[in-house]
Amino acid sequence: MTTYVVKLGGAAATHPVAMRNVATQVAALRAEGTRVVLVHGGGPQLTTLSERLGIGGTFVQGRRVTDAAQIEAAKMAFAGQAGTDLAAALNAAGLPAVSLSGVSAGLVQAKRRAPHPVDYGFVGDVTNVNTLVLTALLDAGLVPLVASLASTADGTVLNVNADTIAARIAAALSADSLFLLTDAGAVYERLGDETTRIPSTTLADLGKVASGASGGMLPKLSAVSVALEAGVERVHIAGFVRPDALATARAGTSGTTITR
Description:
- The chain is of the alpha/beta class.
- It has a single domain, classed as Carbamate kinase.
- Helix content is 37%, strand content 25%.
- Strand 3 and strand 4 form a beta hairpin.
């Protein structure tokens, strides 16, 4: 049976029209018999909450530094606001979405990242993915919606990049494709120049693409490598605002497709 993992940025929860479009596309995939797992972040929600709480925020190479105050806010923003809003939007569109996080049933286990050369605080690197809860939900005809939190062996909750979690879940499920839906909509030779879209590339050539990347695109390209090296056939980077993003990404007429 075909399985897709689709990663949504937290910004998707703030775009009702885009969420309806995503829900419609996922419903179409399910009608074809494709099983879909959704993974989401909550960056915009966490940034807004952090500002309200007066705890600020720091990024290094596109990744958020997460201190003790930030991880408490992340729990509220990711598994709370973003997960709840996304599940509500998907359910309203007729998709039986179940909101959970990487902590649920030990889905994503991680270890705290070493503090050198940068101390990211309560940020984790994935050590294992236990797909039991995902398989149970998929077998029941439901759509898992996973927030990007994980836990350690001693129960410490960590912030893990959503692209990374999506890649590791795709690998653990032996997914046929991983979709990373983004604001940018594709990888470009020159950021912001639509005429320089890179329609397709391979894992071997990904380093050339990554050389011109910056900010939030860096962890995405790292996740692409993780997924492809683990056996996922192809990864699509596409725009979440397009009403046909998944279909056109599969066809190669939008976004960027990276294959092994």
